[in-house]
Amino acid sequence: MKFKYKVMTGVLAASMLLPVTAFGGVVNYALYTDIVAEINGHPIRSYNIDGHTAVVAEDLRGYGFWAVWNPVERTLDVTRAMKDGLPETPVKFPEYTPEALTHKVGEKAKPVYSTDIVTYIAGEEAPSYNIGGETIIWMESLKPYGTLVWNPDARKAEFTLSGNPMSDKLAELKKNVDDWKEIGGAGSTYETIESQFGTLFVGAMTGTPHGTSRIMTFVKTDGTTIDILNLLPMSGLGQRLYANPRDIKIDGSIITFVTPVNEGSEDGNIKEWGDTLCKVDINTGKLISAQPLEGVLETWTANSANSELEQGNELYLKVKRTGAEVSVTEGTLPKGVSVEFSEKGITVCNYISELNEDTSYGKAYKALLALNLPSVTDDENIPDRVKQLDEVRKYCNLTYNRSIINYEVHWSQGNGHRDLCFEFFRISLADGDEVSITIKDIN
């Protein structure tokens, strides 16, 4: 059932606002309504958008939720707040009192804009909008974490937080291991690793007919699960008995771990990958990569946003492969700039409003603009292109293992930023290989 709900007047909270961008213009209007929204009996600021009860994602932080902003991916993840592996209900809810309605029900109250931010609730993409610089989501999208009921007599949309579906599933997994331990698997063990998206259960059941059977299951806060080991290649009768995960880490929505991997083939042969670094995305439930720790990385990425770098007047960054990881290892980054590396090229994002044109980098940026480099959509047949690239190389230096990289370059326009895109022949990285970029003024 859809709900109408009350739009509150007054000053919006200024704290914990997300950098929402209204890039698509007005797509709708929030309407005045006499309906009040509540979570566990406590009123929360709400709006009526196209017949849906909508609340401010940032406000949910006081009502038993996490709202985690990722500036690199431009995503917002809304999940239940957790403590000691269990959903946490606030001891004290915000003291918010809905204001008296001063306008006619159904009148336009605020414009609603589209937004380039993607919002996930319980790991699933959900409708979201920009209203007054804040992210608005439908109240019904919170259903993985509770029950939404329309109370016509009280004119309320009442949301009640659920108990603990995640802990129930974890209890089931623990019981399976404990029961096996009682009937002969004396060495069976398990451990749990907590995150804002749920809990990872890692277990080992000894004494099975084929040896030790491993368990690696991620239990989301809504009780749904991801069987991590089933995402790996099969080997021998559809089994994955080779698995022995270690060095397990959870960073945001990404699980990384190292395990031996074997891959079976139709002719019955088995290819041994050896120790392999695996990455799994909790949001999608998919294996991002499984890269053997030896050999060459055919595809790789690294981003300056994931490293602690000094702020500097020049742009200088170096990425290096260590094991199966490629990361920024050193350098300086001017204010208003971020850089993404891959095997195909390097993209330098310039957030124009933050750039300092008096720095060495700022002067180089202005000089590159003056060269009238093509955009990604322009015709490649540009007169004096060779001469133009020679001028670019005066300011921009790219190296692979300290040897100069030849490249093509063009501009790409973003939302509030202008990107300088360097394209080069695919570069594969062996352990210890390095790629660097330097951009500075030559005067």
Walk me through the topology.
Layout: E1 26-31, E2 36-39, E3 42-44, E4 46-49, E5 52-56, E6 65-70, E7 75-80, E8 82-83, E9 86-87, E10 108-113, E11 118-121, E12 124-126, E13 128-131, E14 134-138, E15 146-151, E16 156-161, H1 165-182, E17 189-195, E18 198-208, E19 211-220, E20 225-227, E21 246-251, E22 254-264, E23 270-281, E24 286-292, E25 296-297, E26 301-303, E27 310-311, E28 315-322, E29 325-333, E30 337-342, E31 345-350, H2 360-370, H3 385-395, E32 396-400, E33 403-404, E34 408-413, E35 418-423, E36 429-430, E37 434-439
Parallel strand pairs: 2-16, 7-11, 27-29
Antiparallel strand pairs: 1-4, 1-10, 2-3, 4-5, 5-14, 6-7, 8-9, 11-12, 13-14, 15-16, 17-18, 18-19, 19-20, 21-22, 22-23, 23-24, 25-36, 26-30, 28-29, 28-37, 30-31, 31-35, 32-33, 32-37, 34-35
Task: Describe the protein in words.
The chain is mainly beta and 443 residues long. The protein folds into three domains: 26-161, no CATH class; 165-294, no CATH class; 301-439, no CATH class. The chain has three helices and 37 strands. The strands form nine sheets. A six-stranded antiparallel sheet has the order 10-1-4-5-14-13, with no helix packed on it. Strands 27-29-28-37-32-33 form a six-stranded mixed sheet. It starts with 25 loop residues before the first strand and ends with a strand.
